Amino acid sequence: MKIFAEFALLNSLLSMRQQAGLTQNKLAERMGTLKVTFLD
């Protein structure tokens, strides 16, 4: 079950990172600046 726990942790980190990236894109659009994402 250790592998599953590590996968769940990685999955939650990626999800949080994706949500943060989307929020950052929305802010960038409002301010008219370049979009910065961490998903590259």
Describe the 3D structure:
With 40 residues, this protein is mainly α. The mean pLDDT is 77. The protein is rod-shaped and about 45 Å long. It has one domain (2-31). Helices cover 75% and strands 0% of the residues. The protein contains one helix and no strands. It comes from Legionella hackeliae. InterPro entries: Lambda_DNA-bd_dom_sf. GO terms for molecular function: DNA binding.
Fold topology:
Elements: H1 2-31
How would you summarize this macromolecular structure in one to three sentences?
This is HTH cro/C1-type domain-containing protein. InterPro entries: Lambda_DNA-bd_dom_sf. The chain is built from 1 helix and no strands.
Radius of gyration (Å): 14 Å
When the domains are counted, the total is 1
- In total, the number of strands is 0
Level of helix content?
Answer: over 70%
Shape: rod-shaped
What is the N-to-C order of secondary-structure elements (H for helix, E for strand)?
A: H
**Helix tally?**
1
Largest sheet: none
**Poorly predicted ranges:** none
Strand content: under 5%
Give the termini separation: 30 Å
Tags for this entry?
40 residues; mainly alpha; 75% helix; HTH cro/C1-type domain-containing protein; DNA binding; 1 helix; rod-shaped; Lambda_DNA-bd_dom_sf
